[in-house]
Specification:
mainly beta, three-stranded antiparallel β-sheet, about 170 residues, about 40% strand, globular, six-stranded antiparallel beta barrel
Length: about 170
């Protein structure tokens, strides 16, 4: 339960046309609750369009406070750091969508594990939001959970600089 509550929905918005348009969405996980830091994959917050212009105007963080409920927009954020080569980004919560004082975020951080113990046969629990369909249709944005197993890897954990795990997960 606590692990699922640390997963948030990241909405990438653009208002250059005079109205808010969600251009992509993804999942993130709170890694430091006190600092409001969330890890996500780089493609979620890809900073620039192909022509070099900024790809979005704001990041909105939506949170499910109760299991099985759709997330509610609570926070705005900024990209703290991003690395497309490593396919990771860290975003920082900077305020509340309603403009109120930030105060306590009341978000649990995930406890980071030790990847050196992971190898083929290791069981995983994967959490995330299904994403917004590109055709404009709606999909219930309830946190999804799936069980998975590591079925292979490339690189040596803690020795090769980067290790990729292959899973049997259906995304």
């Amino acid at each position: 339960q606590q692990l699922a509550l640390s997963v948030v929905q990241v909405l990438v918005a653009d208002d250059s046309a005079g109205f808010e348009q969600i251009i992509r969405s993804g999942s993130g996980v709170v890694v430091d609750a006190d600092a409001g830091l969330i890890a996500t994959s780089y493609p979620v917050v890809n900073l620039y369009d192909a022509d070099g212009t900024p790809a979005f105007s704001s990041l909105i963080i939506a949170v499910s406070r109760d299991a099985g409920t759709e997330p509610v927009r609570e926070f705005v954020a900024e990209v703290a750091t991003a690395d497309p080569t490593l396919d990771i980004a860290i975003i920082r919560i900077t305020g509340r969508v309603d403009g109120e004082a930030l105060g306590d975020l009341n978000l649990p951080a995930v406890a980071l594990g030790d990847a050196t113990s992971a190898s083929a046969g290791f069981n995983l629990r994967l959490f995330g939001y299904p994403g917004l369909p590109s055709d404009g249709s709606t999909v219930a944005q309830v946190l999804q959970k799936s069980e998975s197993t590591i079925v292979g890897q490339r690189g040596t954990v803690a020795r090769s600089g980067r290790t990729w795990f292959k899973t049997d997960a259906r995304m």
